[in-house]
Every structure is written in C-alpha cells, then in structure tokens.
Design brief:
Elements: E1 8-10, E2 13-17, H1 23-31, H2 49-61, E3 65-72, E4 77-88, E5 93-101, H3 109-125, E6 130-136, H4 140-149, E7 152-162, E8 168-177, H5 181-196
Length: 198
C-alpha cells in the first residue's frame, strides 16, 4: 500500500486510523451542530455512522481511501474525520477530503493543524508530487479554507457528482505541487503560532 496505517500528532491534535471504535465519538461530533443537515457535505446521520466507517474501511482495503479520526489528544475526544483519497501511487498523487469537524472546533486551529500533519506526511514521507482537494461548488466555507491553505484552484468539473438530496453538483478542484510545499508549510506554521499566541 502507498499509504500505510500511521498516527500523526501535534498541538493536541491526533490523527489516527479511523476504526469502528470511533463510532460513538463520530456520532457526538456530528451532533455538535447537526452537521448531517448540511446539504454540501457527506456527514453521516447517527444511524449511518457505522456504515460510514465500514465503507471507509472497505475503501482502505482497496487502496482508494485512508480515513483518519481527528482526536483531541489530551482528552481523547473525537472532533471529526479527514481522509487521504483518490490515491494514485503511480504518479504519487492523492487528495485530502471527506473532512468535517464538530461545530465547536470549526474555525479553530484544528483544521490548520490537521492539514499541516497530512501535507507533511504526504510530501515529506510519501514523496507526493501533488496533493489535491475537491469541494461542492456551493460549499463556500470549504473553498475559503482550502484557499487559505495556499492551494491553487485548478477549475470546476460541471455536473460531477450527486449530493445526498439527489441534486447534481459541480465540483471545484484545487491542488498543491511539491515545489510549492515549503512556502505553504511556512505559512501554516505561522498560522498555528498566531493561533496559539495568548
């Protein structure tokens, strides 16, 4: 496997391989803000959380997606989830997505920390050439968050995927190249230092 099981941690945020034992924690994180009601995300309902994890594990076994539980290290509380997906070992490319966090930690240091961990592992350990992101054309918060990381907008794929409500979405694509990584790393480190001041 190009992406092997690994746990990543810094600044009280731990990413560990998503497992069935995270079911109750993921349910609680999704309930913080009733995130399953957002039409532009794939947050599971309480009833589908186990199936959500099982599908992620099936995708891991197929080498297509590697999902992490996002954990507050000091308390063990599950804050959400994020994944490597659309993993292409032959060109050393993967995407970061399936990301969502409990409402109480949105717009905090958590997303910046997770992205720094995932990007560092992708570029520095796995030797990726490109890391990508994709998001719903109406998920403006996600687009702003991706752009804040320093990723470049590649374009929009029209009529690309079904939303949970049955409508068809356009998908906005972003990417970051290996040559851009050092500058982006410095920027993310700066953002984390600024967040932790005071």
């Amino acid at each position: 496997m190009f992406v092997e099981p690994i746990t990543l941690q810094r600044d009280d945020v731990r990413l560990e391989p998503l497992a069935l034992e995270h079911e109750a924690g993921l349910q609680a994180a999704a309930a913080d803000g009733e995130l399953w009601q957002l039409r532009v995300t794939s947050v599971p309902t309480a009833e589908d959380t186990r199936g959500y994890i099982e599908r992620a594990l099936q995708s891991r076994a197929a080498g297509q997606r590697f999902a992490f539980a996002v954990i507050e290290a000091s308390s063990g509380k599950v804050l959400g989830t994020t994944s490597y997906h659309d993993i292409l070992p032959e060109v050393k490319r993967l995407e970061i997505g399936y990301t969502w966090y409990a409402k109480s930690v949105q717009r905090s240091h958590v997303n910046t920390c997770c992205k720094l961990l995932l990007l560092s592992h992708a570029f520095d350990t796995l030797g990726c050439n490109v890391v990508g992101w994709r998001t719903d054309n109406f998920n403006f918060a996600s687009q702003r968050a991706i752009e804040r990381l320093g990723a470049k907008k590649d374009g929009v794929i029209r009529g690309h995927a079904l939303r949970r409500d049955g409508t068809i979405r356009d998908t906005v694509m972003y990417s970051l190249h290996q040559a851009e990584w050092q500058e982006v790393r410095a920027h993310l480190e700066y953002l984390l230092r600024r967040t932790n001041v005071g």
